[in-house]
Amino acid sequence: TAILKGPEDKVNLTCSHTVSSYDMILWYQQSAQNTALKLIGYVRFTSPTVEDSFKGRFDVSGDAAANKMAYLHFPKVTEAEDSAVYFCAASEAQCFTIPSLLYKNPL
């Protein structure tokens, strides 16, 4: 689906699927300037995360567990790079580990 919006316009994209074991939905951007897929953010179960490089420009929300839906919100289109192709993908929820929490810091 093509969406044409001007500067300062709001954009809301919706992604849904029907695979019962997939509890994670990810959003990616592919711009004309850089054809690599860049991870914008994701919803893991009901917890949204936006990557640092996209914070303030995009919001992610939804319920990937029960409703199998996620939303990508552009509060306002502000940059030429926002003109891009956006993809969503669903997967089984991954386990994340924060390495710094695995070790006790000596006092």
From TrEMBL:
<keyword id="KW-0732">Signal</keyword>
<dbReference type="InterPro" id="IPR036179">
    <property type="entry name" value="Ig-like_dom_sf"/>
</dbReference>
<dbReference type="InterPro" id="IPR050413">
    <property type="entry name" value="TCR_beta_variable"/>
</dbReference>
<protein>
    <recommendedName>
        <fullName>Ig-like domain-containing protein</fullName>
    </recommendedName>
</protein>
<dbReference type="InterPro" id="IPR013783">
    <property type="entry name" value="Ig-like_fold"/>
</dbReference>
<dbReference type="GO" id="GO:0007166">
    <property type="term" value="P:cell surface receptor signaling pathway"/>
</dbReference>
<feature type="domain" description="Ig-like">
    <location>
        <begin position="1"/>
        <end position="91"/>
    </location>
</feature>
<dbReference type="InterPro" id="IPR007110">
    <property type="entry name" value="Ig-like_dom"/>
</dbReference>
<dbReference type="InterPro" id="IPR013106">
    <property type="entry name" value="Ig_V-set"/>
</dbReference>
<dbReference type="Pfam" id="PF07686">
    <property type="entry name" value="V-set"/>
</dbReference>
<keyword id="KW-0391">Immunity</keyword>
<dbReference type="GO" id="GO:0002376">
    <property type="term" value="P:immune system process"/>
</dbReference>
<dbReference type="GO" id="GO:0005886">
    <property type="term" value="C:plasma membrane"/>
</dbReference>
